[in-house]
Amino acid sequence: MRYNKKELRLRVDFNNMMTKSVGHDGFTEKQMLAIADKIDDAYESVQAGRGKGMMGWTELPFNQDKVVADILETARYIRKKFEYFVVLGIGGSALGPIAAFQALKHLRFNELPKRQRKGPKFYVEDNVDPERMAALLDVIEPEKTMFNVVTKSGSTSETMAQYLIIRDILEKKLGKDASSHIIATTSKDSGNLIKIAAKENYKTFYIPNGVGGRFSELCPVGLLPAAVLGIDIKGMLGGARYVIDELSVGTNPRKNAPLMAAVLHYLGMKKGKNISVMMPYADSLKFMADWYCQLWGESLGKNRTLDGMPCNKGQTPVKALGVTDHHSQVQLYAEGPFDKIITFIAVEKYRSEVTIPNGCEEYPNVNFLCGHTMNELIQAERVATEFALTKAGKPNYTIILPELNAFTLGELIMYFELQTAYTGALMGIDTFNQPGVEEGKNATYALLGRPGYEEKKKEIESAPPKISRYIV
Ligand code: PA5
Fold it and tell me: What is the pTM of this model?
């Protein structure tokens, strides 16, 4: 499909971040100028790092022709042959597929009749709550299901536990044919899943070495589920490519929106703004906020600088939904502490238009709504909240998507990934590791008796015993 880049260009309105709009808690040109060298360095280090080390994700829009062809062929087969498609994965192996599903498919997709869905029902299982697994098994028929096991490390407890449960069920029902119901997406040369996949003859897609979980939506982790859903994955990659090639070029933040966002968040952290609220005004982007929370939190929450100095840095991401959270969180954003930067996402053209009908003429305080569309209502509420927060002196900015489609979703993904990389570079931390997550993973392995984790088990057991008077 062809997309008109100019018409679909993502724009960001930073006005309400500046003191001119928001008053003393905002930011000034002078403050930005004072760190001009740092900004140059951050931009240059991200550019120089492209495609190297853990920055393989910058090149995904350019280097996947062969794998995209394989994904599209596999997806065509799955769409024809299977009634259900289930992703088994967690963290970066799940949040992207969930976000893309919600963003680009019908909001009640699984409830639609098959002729409208035109493909399998879709589930992403990103927890090990036993009730959830039991519930999944109540609604799918394993013999009509393709399972996509996604884990870069090939050993994450949650994903491997799910896989073992599913494999057992499939083998009992289908015997040798079980293998044709599992696709593995994992590292080519490390971990256990790749070995299991080779032994069991699973169709396999690879997660490139330089692509970490939270940066993996544009590799087979996200592209295969998206293609199974009939999403235009070439369009997604095209949107991402557009951001890299044209929207994030040069050290001038006024011409490079992800860099500008990074600079303002960085300056914000310096002023004690340690919370980043992500608030899309579209149900379809609700889970993009979840995806952003992982990207921002796991990438920037670090206790060492790149040169090894202790620090405790990061900005806590919070997800909110416009307008639902007007009636929940916005009171706090407006009148609570000056510790947040609020990002709105606006969609100019929704995929549906719903008119509020007439019929309440005798009640002017209700009648004012009649004849408007819900589209006008949600836009008015967004503008009103932006106004109220700005009036309250709370820095906020708006990412504007002309509409939501595969291309603009690709733009948004790459926009946030670059913003994160620039921010990490400004902060002088390793944006791409996650030692805090690994510690928890290792402790789980130890508690459940994984060989090689005996020392960790001893360390856990040597923790001071719980004191009963504090258990109330
Ligand atoms: O971003 C990350 O690296 C993590 O959140 C991982 O995606 C998550 O821990 C799952 O890891 P894996 O894909 O190895 O199962």
Answer: 0.97
